[in-house]
Amino acid sequence: MLTKAQWGTIVFSLIYFALALACLRTRLDVFAGGFLSLMSLSVIYELIFGLPTLRSPGALREAVGIAYDRATLAALPLLSVGDFLVFLDYGHRHLTPPLWEGVLQSVGLVLSLMAIVWLGWTDAHLARHFAEAQAVQRIMREGPFRYVRHPRYAGILGGRLAFALVFSSPVGWLLLIAWTIVILRRIRLEEGYLRQRFGRDYEAYAQLTPRLVPGVY
């Protein structure tokens, strides 16, 4: 039986893809079609292995960070609306045709695949972690969390960069900036929450593990 979170993901995804296809109907080329195909595979994986599989409402709330940051969750639908402006630009308006560069768009598709695989790996670990009875009493250090403290946010930003490259729209680049601002704020709040909860244990983990990109940040 599907959880409420899984049903919510299904409904949101169906609406998103229907609107995306409507916006792109005049230009559903290999890049746009490839990107949407990768996204659909990502949604299917998430429904099977990701956070929506959590059956405990408490565990799901802890996993998505409701305790320390409701504002970001409220902002996500608004940021998603910006995607449709990008789709409309790509399918109809053509604000900046010089940005349409096949090599860069191909790089975007490859980066999108990498981001989806990374996010899938991360979410599978998160789902297993928060399904444990004692999950809230220990810090995650397994899987991608060995390399960066916030692998999910790193994957999201990688996916937003891929989105901007694939659809060659200035709106996509503005959305990347907006997502970066939102995620950096989220990281600040989340780390404050984790330091309060785990104290020196989290400080030791933070000293050994970068936030988003090894060797950079």
Brief summary of the model shown:
The chain is an all-alpha fold and 217 residues long. The protein has one domain (4-208). The protein is built from eight helices and no strands.
Overall outline: globular
| Classification by helices and strands | mainly alpha
Strand tally: 0
- Cα-based radius of gyration, to the nearest Å: 18 Å
How many domains? The number is: 1
Helix fraction bin: over 70%
Task: Enumerate how many helices there are, as a single number.
Answer: 8
Biggest beta sheet attributes: none
State the low-pLDDT regions, or none: none
Give, in order, the helices and strands.
HHHHHHHH
Q: Report mean pLDDT, rounded to a whole number.
A: 92
Distance between the termini: 41 Å
User: What percent strand?
Assistant: under 5%
Description:
This protein has about 220 residues and is mainly α. The protein is about 75% helix and about 0% strand. Helix 2 runs parallel beside helix 5 (about 100-130) and helix 6 packs antiparallel against helix 7 (about 170-200). The protein starts with a helix and ends in a 9-residue tail after the last helix. The mean pLDDT is about 90.
Topology readout:
Layout: H1 4-24, H2 30-49, H3 57-64, H4 70-93, H5 102-131, H6 151-167, H7 170-198, H8 200-208
Give keywords:
single chain, 217 residues
